[in-house]
Amino acid sequence: MGNYQNILCCSQNSTNDNLNIETMTNIIKENNSNNLLPYLSMGSISSSNVTHKKKLILYSHDNDNIKSIFIEDLINSSSVEVKKIVFGKNYFLGLLEDSNKTYLVGYGDNSQGQLGLNVNTEYYESKNNNNPINYYDYLLLINIFKPEEIILDLSTERNITYVLVKDTKLNKTSIFKFGLSEEELLKIRTVSVKEINPIKIEEINEEIINDINHIFSMKYRILLTSSNSIYLKGSMFNMGYNRTYKLFKKFNQKIEQFFTGIGHIILRLEDGKLLTMGNNEYGELGCESNNKLKFNKVDFFKDKNIKKISTGFRHNLILCDNELYAFGENSSGQCFGNDIKCEPSLITISNNNEKIIDCFAGADYSLLITESKKIYAWGNCNFIIKDELNPINDADEKKMRLISDIELKDVKNIFCGINHIIFYTEIMS
């Protein structure tokens, strides 16, 4: 773990291709956060020789403005790729990769240190909280790890972030925690600026942690997965509590894919079997089950060739060859039906025989992409559909709507959160 905190800022309000360093410094001074200046490294990263090809287009529940973020403004490389983006309550963190390097980027709320940055607690003591000084309305490149430390995975839990990091020199893997709970934050409000360095979680057996390849957090519990095992810290559906990471389940074959909702798990094994476990109030397990701690085989998909799995809070999308299925909670029409509880059901596009090539489940909404690159959305997706001539009403939530934004014609991936959605686009030259 490095003993420094460097941040590179990418302001989207500037029309210049170069970063406006003077403007950013003045913003910090105006917000009474001079103590943060030693931690900001805002050198000039010129992008004059870079053709902007990769872009993140951010839609937000709380803002009607659509924000475009160019990756090349932060990292001067045409080969950098966005591997993963995870969303907390009002922030997101992204994992970017370029050759053997990894980069951590962040955006949004840092009031509890969830971006891994210092917290200015004057905001909490002020009676006028209309201008939160711990909110970053631009993308940050957060350099808090050593060059030899690569980021394997990351996950979020409301206002807390977990990052899985491997030290390539020592060949050791560690987990770091960003952010504080509300109770922890109350203890530090006596100072204006508080350093909240990422905390290294020590209570993990070295034999376990060095075999871990992914980390997941889901409502007061943390799950780690290796090639064929699941480890748990915390309470799994209120059935016992682990203070350290314990083996929860070991399989006799490789775990190919692993997904979590707010209270359920879906995994696919090497032989293609689909297993689910957890809450099943809305049919989110895809089968009949009343045992929260038992993995259930989902027979509905046993003869189908699964191409993609995506999980929302309490619903799931599964793409099989030319067919898309949805099941789980449907209160906002996210499974494209009329019943609140939905068994695996086929999703079709009205008057359209186009092939569906990808799918994405948000908290309570869904999206798909067709072979001709058309994007359709349904469920609680009002913030995605920017159509002033045809505003969405409650009845429209259960309808599939075409997203006609011209900027989204080159979408490479979609990342869905609670209050945000990001379209990752790449213009091919």
Description:
The protein has 429 residues and is mainly beta. Helix content is 5%, strand content 42%. The protein has helices at residues 21-30, 122-125, 182-186, 206-209; strands at 6-10, 54-60, 67-70, 81-87, 91-98, 101-109, 119-120, 135-143, 149-157, 160-167, 172-178, 193-194, 199-200, 214-217, 221-225, 229-234, 242-250, 255-260, 264-269, 274-278, 296-297, 306-311, 315-320, 323-329, 341-347, 356-361, 365-370, 375-379, 401-403, 411-416, 420-426. It has a 5-stranded antiparallel beta sheet with strand order 1-8-6-5-4, with no helix packed on it. Strands 3-2-31-30 form a 4-stranded antiparallel beta sheet, with no helix packed on it. Strands 9-10-11-13 form a 4-stranded antiparallel beta sheet, with no helix packed on it. It is globular, with a radius of gyration of 22 Å.
Shape: globular
Weakly predicted, low-confidence segments? 1-48, 125-131
Helix tally equals 4
* Number of E strands: 31
**Helix/strand-derived class?**
mainly beta
Sketch the major β-sheet: 5 strands, antiparallel
The fraction of residues assigned to DSSP E strands is 35-45%
Numbering strands along the chain, what is their spatial order in the largest sheet? 1-8-6-5-4
Terminal CA distance reads 39 Å
What is the total domain count?
A: 2
Mean pLDDT: 77
Radius of gyration: 22 Å
Helix amount:
under 10%
Write a concise keyword list for the protein shown above.
2 domains; mainly beta; 42% strand; Methylamine Dehydrogenase, Chain H; disordered N terminus; four-stranded antiparallel beta sheet; 429 residues; five-stranded antiparallel beta sheet
